[in-house]
Amino acid sequence: MPNYKIDFKPVIEKINKKNIKIIALQIPEGLKHYSYTIVEHLKKNINSEIIVVADPCFGACDIADNELGKIGAELIIHLGHTPILNSKKYAIPVEFVNAFSSIDIKKVINNSLKYLKGKKIKIVTTAQHIHKLDEVKKILENHNFNAIISKGNERIAFEGQVLGCNFSVSLSNNEDYDCILFLGSGTFHPLGLILNSKKPVVVADPYTNTVKKDEIEDLKDQILRQRYGAIANSKNSKIFGILVGLKTGQQRIKLVNEIKKLLIDHQKKYLIISMNYFLPTSLEGFRDIDCFVSTACPRIAIDDYLKYKKPIITPIELEILLDKRVWEDYEFDQIL
Ligand code: SF4
């Protein structure tokens, strides 16, 4: 597969030791166009029938174990993400198979060196480049930087790995460092990193061979202005919709109860609303709700804010709205 190395051998061996009749295959959007090739490869090596799941799959939080179990799947192969939950939480066994990027990173890392601030550099990346972090570390050390790769919390499978909802590697052990170097593409993870760590973030994108720093600062300022506006616009809200995600890795029921208590203490009314797939149109019918507070994927309120007709805020932003926290202590919502 161009640009990716996927090792199905361990999962094929496991499947062949059991008599599994039906397997479900969850594939992230970026790899869906290889579905047929992947299934052909698997079928050459195993005797099970394979059902490919077409529903969007945004992360390892999004395992359709209950639904697929109901149609007879005995095992799920989840491609392109790493485990975030204890395997006992799933209705049927789930095998995670990572898709490792084979793209070269030397050029872009060398290009990124002049953008780094200070000498102590935290290096982070996503699951697909995780095997390249040691190479990044060596390049930095050859240029007299102190490169740090940190362990995240239990939701994080590899040292130095970030998720869009979890930047625990950037805060682990109160380590002191000057700057973050992110290996990967897009602004989704860098935005979370800069909001969370409050350190400069340099993005080295090996796909485009480009390095970004100022754009990430500008995006942070733009998003913070938007979040400030969302809180200010919701200040007079009387009825709040507390959104509960149904996806296994997004459920935060304890947080729902804390929010409920906070709202009651501030003489606010609430309605608890569950959702599986978040669509702005699904919330349009709730006309009597003034503001939604999302306890599901933290990125919904931040990245999709403009798609919703009513303000949608994070639990931390609700604390600011209710004067339980000051704006200066703003934090990016995470699932830890
Ligand atoms: S909760 Fe959101 S950011 Fe976290 S893994 Fe799921 S989709 Fe990604």
Topology:
Layout: E1 4-6, H1 9-17, E2 22-26, H2 35-45, E3 49-53, H3 65-70, E4 75-79, E5 94-97, E6 99-101, H4 106-112, E7 120-125, H5 133-142, E8 146-148, E9 179-183, H6 188-197, E10 201-205, E11 210-212, H7 214-233, E12 239-245, H8 253-265, E13 269-275, H9 280-284, E14 291-294, H10 299-303, E15 312-313, H11 315-321
Parallel strand pairs: 2-3, 2-4, 4-5, 7-8, 7-9, 9-10, 12-13, 12-14, 14-15
Antiparallel strand pairs: 1-6, 10-11
This protein binds iron/sulfur cluster.
Describe this structure in words.
This protein is an alpha/beta fold. The chain is built from eleven helices and 15 strands. Strands 8-7-9-10-11 form a five-stranded mixed beta sheet, sandwiched between helices. A four-stranded parallel beta sheet has the order 3-2-4-5. Strand 2, helix 2 and strand 3 form a beta-alpha-beta unit. Helix 6 packs across helix 7. 39% of the residues are buried. The protein binds iron/sulfur cluster. Iron/sulfur cluster binds next to loops. The site of iron/sulfur cluster has 12 residues, from loops.
